[in-house]
């Protein structure tokens, strides 16, 4: 109702303006995504999940555990120059993969696709390393992403063009620990 504060119970009173995707809805969708990705792989060629740090780390742990087939896990960290709330597409690798992906079927695991510029760069970068396949699973997608020429095979939720936090997504490194996705109150960043 009117007075309900979704952040309060997690120690962020007065900071969120709304709950967007409750924890239960996230988990149900992640189960669907995990089964869909698993159906496209075989035990002989298990997917190598590439979690894009830091935002996707909460998602990938639930996702991997929901998959009915084995997977392997790698991490990559990239940064896209820009403001705190939007990206420029100029990307730099902060932490590269620890191993070769030649011949592997990789699945890039992303938290959110906004402009799609970061993902577009990442797909091109990984493609130069000779994987057998590159697919993308993104938990969230904003409308702008459709303008970018990246095929995102698996998408959890299409959301409006608003700044969201929680479930791995931060604002100035805060809110990643929330078990749901919510809207950050405008007074927190304007
Ligand atoms: P893109 O390159 O697609 O514009 O954005 C990529 C990155 O920007 C995402 O992986 C995420 O880290 C950040 N980002 C984009 N939209 C949001 C948002 O609504 N909330 C948060 N917390 N981060 C976002
Ligand atoms: Mg990301
Ligand atoms: Mg961030």
UniProtKB/TrEMBL annotation:
Residues 24-171 form the Phosphoribosyltransferase domain. Keywords: Cytoplasm, Glycosyltransferase, Magnesium, Metal-binding, Nucleotide-binding, Purine salvage, Transferase. One of its GO terms (molecular function) is nucleotide binding. InterPro entries: HGPRT, Hxn_phspho_trans, PRTase-like, PRTase_dom. It is an enzyme of class 2 (transferase). It catalyses: IMP + diphosphate = hypoxanthine + 5-phospho-alpha-D-ribose 1-diphosphate; GMP + diphosphate = guanine + 5-phospho-alpha-D-ribose 1-diphosphate. Pfam families: Pribosyltran. GO terms for biological process: GMP salvage; guanine salvage; hypoxanthine metabolic process; IMP salvage; purine ribonucleoside salvage. GO terms for cellular component: cytosol. PANTHER family: HYPOXANTHINE PHOSPHORIBOSYLTRANSFERASE (PTHR43340:SF1), HYPOXANTHINE-GUANINE PHOSPHORIBOSYLTRANSFERASE (PTHR43340). Belongs to the purine/pyrimidine phosphoribosyltransferase family. This is Hypoxanthine phosphoribosyltransferase. It comes from Nakamurella multipartita (strain ATCC 700099 / DSM 44233 / CIP 104796 / JCM 9543 / NBRC 105858 / Y-104) (Microsphaera multipartita). The lineage of its organism: Bacteria, Bacillati, Actinomycetota, Actinomycetes, Nakamurellales.
């Amino acid at each position: 109702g009117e007075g309900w504060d979704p952040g309060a119970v997690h120690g962020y009173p007065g900071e969120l303006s709304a709950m967007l995707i409750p924890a239960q809805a996230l988990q149900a969708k992640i189960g669907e995504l995990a089964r869909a990705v698993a159906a496209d792989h075989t035990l002989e060629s298990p997917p190598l999940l590439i979690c894009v740090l830091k935002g996707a780390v909460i998602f990938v742990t639930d996702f991997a555990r929901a998959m009915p087939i084995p997977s392997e896990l790698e991490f990559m960290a990239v940064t896209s120059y820009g403001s705190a709330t939007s990206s420029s597409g100029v990307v730099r690798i902060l932490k590269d993969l620890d191993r070769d992906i030649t011949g592997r079927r990789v699945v890039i695991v992303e938290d959110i696709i906004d402009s799609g510029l970061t993902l577009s760069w990442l797909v091109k970068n990984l493609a130069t390393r000779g994987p057998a396949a590159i697919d993308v699973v993104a938990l969230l997608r904003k409308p702008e992403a459709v303008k970018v020429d990246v095929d995102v095979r698996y998408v959890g939720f299409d959301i409006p063009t608003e700044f969201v936090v929680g479930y791995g997504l931060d604002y100035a490194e805060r809110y990643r620990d929330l078990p749901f996705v919510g809207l950050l109150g405008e007074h927190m960043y304007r």
